[in-house]
Amino acid sequence: MKELTDEELIRSYVVTQRNAYFEVLYERYCDKVYRRCLQLTKDPVKAEDFTHDIFLRLIVKLGSFKEQAKFSTWLYSVTYNYCMDHLRSHKHKEVYVEEGYENFPDYTDTDDAEVADMEAKRLHKALDHLTPDEQSILMMKYQDDLSIRDIAGMLEVSESAVKMRLKRSKEKLRKYYLERVIFWLVLLLKLLSTCKWPFR
């Protein structure tokens, strides 16, 4: 049974309703869903509760999986939407002004190396300044390597809107990252200026 593909497991579960098929899917994706929930919530207890709830909902939702995308992508969408719905109910939601995005400077991959080159610790600190929506869209693109089309389908927006959101989120991330780099550089210079060197 473990040799079956995700899609074969889903079809078999929908037809037979045997828990064994669902349990294999659970084993494959439980940790991944938990890690995604933890990244979005920053709370281990809440992430565990969300993971439990998502798989309970998945039992009902599997029948609606149409195999138009990979199961892993579809499950990511379910996880993202569930977490965002709960996070937005407890936190102010940033509203994107989407009108006129056709004229927004086009998103390109040429400067993606900047995100990859950011030091891990400073990158995580900078990410904390972004909204859950901004963090998620960056993780989809750079951590999960999803295509613009896949992200657009998951968020139910146009590809142009995804490009706009990515560009805005990257610019905001770059701003906070550079601010931290400058802060530590200034601090280092101050420390050096107070040092008494043993030689002149």
UniProtKB/TrEMBL annotation:
Superkingdom field: Bacteria
Organism (species): Nibrella viscosa
InterPro entries: RNA_pol_sigma-70-like, RNA_pol_sigma-70_dom, RNA_pol_sigma70_r2, RNA_pol_sigma70_r4_t2, RNA_pol_sigma_r2, RNA_pol_sigma_r3/r4-like, WH-like_DNA-bd_sf
Family statement drawn from the similarity comment of this UniProt entry: Belongs to the sigma-70 factor family. ECF subfamily.
Cross-referenced Pfam families: Sigma70_r2, Sigma70_r4_2
Residue span, RNA polymerase sigma-70 region domain: 25-91
Domain RNA polymerase sigma factor 70 region 4 type intervals: 122-173
CDD domains (alphabetical): Sigma70_r4 (cd06171)
Name of protein: RNA polymerase sigma factor
Keyword flag Transcription: yes
